[in-house]
Protein: Smr domain-containing protein
Amino acid sequence: MGNLWSSAPTTGDQYRAEAAVHAARRAELLSRSQAAWRAGDKALAKSLSDAGKAEGARVLEANARAADAYFTSNNKGRPVAEVDLHGLFADEAVVRIEERIKACRAAGQPHLVVIVGQGNHSKDGIPVLKPRIRNLMEHSTGTVAGSTYSMQHAPYFEIFVRPLRYSHRIVTAQDQRVLHLPYRLPLSFLRRMSAALPLNFSLCRLVLSGCSIDDVGGRMVAKALRESKALRDVDLGRNVLGDRTAVDLANALSVNDVLVRLDLRCNPIGDIGAKALCKMLSCNTTLTSLSLYECCIGNRGMAALADALRISSTLQRLDVLDNLNTNRYF
Structure:
């Protein structure tokens, strides 16, 4: 059976359409083959089955050409450290990411920015590509540091390629630039910094975003905040801080009367941490902005946060988007 198209398609959409036609033919032929088999006509059943398998091969061929067309068109003129995966199926994307990671490492590139969609074209609107890439990173040699961060438009998936270690985060930026390169802060540095902060009366803003700080380092930062008399803005987003750190921070801010803004976005903070922060909000008189964007807060934590909004007299901004259950309470 020849190709459906009179002339070779030139775009990914055309190749996808061709694949869909062949897929429909394959389904029809295999259905007829099963019917023939049930009717006892084994020769016809085998002939139809073989024809169905041939259509299946054409599906794979058309989809492969579509992936090549999309990839070539989307990445024309892009540097090796940036790749756009729009239009690709998850399996097609993973293959190209693995190839690009090797190219980046060979070229000495310190990072790779992977542009993906929001899942609008996936079944039921559920993103498929982002989780697959995240899973690829988590099962690659080394460890994954950091968490996720996204805003509104097509997310960017930054994969920082380092010897024997990968780290990643999702960000968005209209100008398609890498915002910064996070790195792992050693505990020795955090310990010395935390000891020095209460003695510093001029530093007003501390940014420790994307530094792979865990609950051990988080406790050190919380201790420093308890005693600090100058810090007004602290960014701890995109780390690996859990409920333990949230409880420590809540205890610290129950006595801190200086801090105005606390950013904890994209950390694995759950209901326990959220409840501790809510208790803190009932007595804190200075905090006006708290971000818990894309954490791991569920029903109970959300209910506590909703109650905290009624009690707090100073909080002006609370960001809880993209948690486990946001719409039910906000």
The chain is about 45% helix and 10% strand. The longest strand covers residues 156-162.
